[in-house]
Amino acid sequence: MAYRPFLATGTALAVLTALAPATPATAQTTGAALPAAAPVADLVRAVDIPFQQFTLSNGLRVIVHTDRKAPVVAVSVWYDVGSKHEPRGKTGFAHLFEHLMFNGSENAPGDFFEPLEQVGATDVNGTTSFDRTNYFETVPTAALDRALFLESDRMGYLTGAITQRTLDVQRGVVQNEKRQGDNQPYGLRRYKLVEGLFPAGHPYGHTTIGSMADLDAASLADVKAWFRDHYGPNNAVLVLAGDVDVATARAKVEKYFGAIPAGPRSVAPPAPIPASLPGPASEVMKDRVAATMIVREWAVPGINDQDAAALDVAAGVLGGLASSRFDNVLVKGEKLAVSASASYQPMAQLGMFQVMAIVRPGVDAAVVSKRLDALVADFLRTGPTADEVKRYVTSTVSERIGGLESVGGFGGKAVTLAEGALYSGDPAHYKKELAALAAQTPASVKAAAGRWLTRPAYQLSIVPGARDAYAEAQVPPHKDVPAEAAPAVTGDRGPIPAVDRVADLSFPAVQRTQLSNGIELVYAQRDTVPVTQAVLSFDAGIAADVEGKLGTGQLTLAMLDEGTATMSSIALAEAKERLGADIGTGNSQDRTTLSLRVPSANLAAGTALWADIARNPAFPEGELTRVKTQQLTQIAQELTSPNGLAARVLPRLMSPGTPYAKSQGSGDPKAVAALTRGDLVAFQQAWLRPDKAKIFVVSDRPLAEVRAVFDRQLGDWRATGPAGTKTFPATIASVSPRIVLIDRPDSPQSLIQGGMQTGLKGTDDLLPVQVANDALGAGFLGRLNMDLREQKHWSYGVGGNFSRNAFAAPYVVSAPVQADQTGPSLTALRRGIADYLTTKPMTPAEFDRAINAGTRSLSGNFETSLDVLSAMQANDLYRRPDDYYATITTRYRALTRDQVQAALDRAIDPAKMAWVVVGEAAKVKPQLDSLGLPVEVIPAARVAGTSAAPTAGAQ
Predict the structure, then answer these.
(1) Which pLDDT does position 487 carry in this prediction?
(2) Closest Cα partner for 453 from 642, 297, 687?
(3) Sign of CA dihedral 618, 620, 621, 626
(4) What is the Cα gyration radius of the chain?
């Protein structure tokens, strides 16, 4: 299933013994043969992204893909510069520039996000990898000129806007980005793996975050020279995908980018695949983790090599499929590991092949290591079966089809075209990749694996213990930097383009019907891709977990695909893979879901599997002990994670004595250890039943066909026995204000989270408070983030939002901050909220931005079927009409600034918030003692054993 409690993927399990189903004997089963799956060749043919391309005289390559399904255009700029281009002494420069290029340019001074949020841009971001840096946003068609102006200005007119203060601030932000990554369990392995695999000075031998010492030593002249050397138009690919044609694109791109002169051409540095390791073949690292991680990594060929597709399949068969060999043997069969995986990361000039296992507590890590190596050796000797190859290829192609629906973002069509152009010189390279994948045979995969996985592998074991010393990001000595005036336009390109009227959202019509047994079916049609996505939603959720046995709900979900009355877990996993189907579980506060995504050509067979899992879970005793151990290990992992620790404590402070206080990560370890098969059967029969279910579906197939398919599998399902009930108080009160400090040694950062009940419920109209919060805590431009990140550079990112549940909508703030600024950061958060509610309320400009962003972003927010499916479920949960989003623009425009500010003033009060701080108590507590709130210190190891219901205090 898609429910993945561990770091790795696989979850398919060993063959089950026959067991009686947990559901009534009269329930329909699916023991009959499934309908045949669509041929892989047919799926491959469905992956098509038509495009046209041209090149400006300055060398800028432009690719245009027309997709008229929504009035939006994805703008994606990919620069041929990544960490591999960084020489000694300048590591981290490419990533630093990813940050600097969001801080304004000569003709568009100030924050890059501001003019884009005004027009309702979505998916605005940038990333850096070994091979490239990219920037992207999806904008309403009417705002395309603005996006192109901004992208061209930071390409051609940036250096005049980079000041010493900008450099210092973004250096500090990058340091906190590094601290945030380092602060996670196993967070230091990324450095060890590249250093262990590649020799010093190799282009791929350092991480993209780079050396903090190198960044600290960088002068303003250094970074400006780096920009001039690498960010010219002849070093870039621009992709426009969406509601645009090539003639329009050519005129606009020529207008905005044509005058930018070409710069030096990026040259890929020599990056040979090492034939040997630069140092020890095996190393051990200690970290504050709950279970030992074993990793093997090989240097292998990259994306353009003839062996790339075969290595991809090898990784999938070994440890990527739900029925992978590692899962079947290490996790389910021999029960040596709680998770195991394999992955192939292809890059432009080489790749990395990794296998990994998390050792089951109580098992000798040396035994797991030896068995992992033996499984790899057996694969090299025998290769995969034809069925394994076919299942992996089908699953992969199915995922690619789903990815075709989005024009932009992190993985849409613009990304596919840009990657092909930049890495392979061909925007249509994805077709060659898929053709190569479909052409793989057991022999070709065995041969490629034999060529590369017999070479030396770097081996790393991360074991529990006090964290080893490492190159922590240091706080640089204080330097007095003169205050700078507000940024001003220094260029001569004219004003940022205005935006014409943005087209209103066209939300698909939602229809409701019922199956024969009364289950309501909520349907919308989207025909962009031939895929059906459905959710079987039960009125359960975390709030339905069993008091005194917290974790029952999660264990029940984890056991659902361990086999049915007629199919073993391996048979289920293999059947899903042959169909390219993804079946997963989910748990929100109020709802429990069983989801299905399947190519519509395989809808009948995919629905049969989905229904069998819902109706006939076997909950086999033979697998229960193993799955409980996985969940107990996950609980132990949560107690080493900053977010995992805070997520266990804050709900108790915000919602004491209510069903929402049951939100305790993966549960109570003592209770989970004692759970029986009978407990799971009882939970499933009380909560995962047809009279608590609704089906939500978005498909390219018509409603009549979808209903008929679902009715055949679910229409005769009947509930038996009493249904579960949830009881909520009329009002929910938080505890009295306090700070709970969770002592987590070796923490380079502190995680601050605060929350309070607002008196609101999810079923209330929250639009006024959400609009008011836009300028306070929501998004990058929120005052809390701008203060702690962009002004003080104490954090990588801060947010505050309403956590919307059916019966409560508490306000929650989250801020990971550098440890030495924990107390000042909490003070700044409280002051920032208080000022916003009193002396420094929302400004007219902030209000206008919130309304514009809220209305103009709608088409981008609901571009995909999954977006629509999520909205349909939210509307139902919050008791809103099905056409809520089709009419929301009118409601936005009827709001006033005074109205939304007054609504927020009534809802939140920083003086009534309870706070959780996860950090090293010895460093942090002295900073908190002077804040005027009682401070309670809890060791991290004790968090799972603390009371779930603190005494509530009046708000």
Answers:
(1) 67
(2) 297
(3) negative
(4) 27
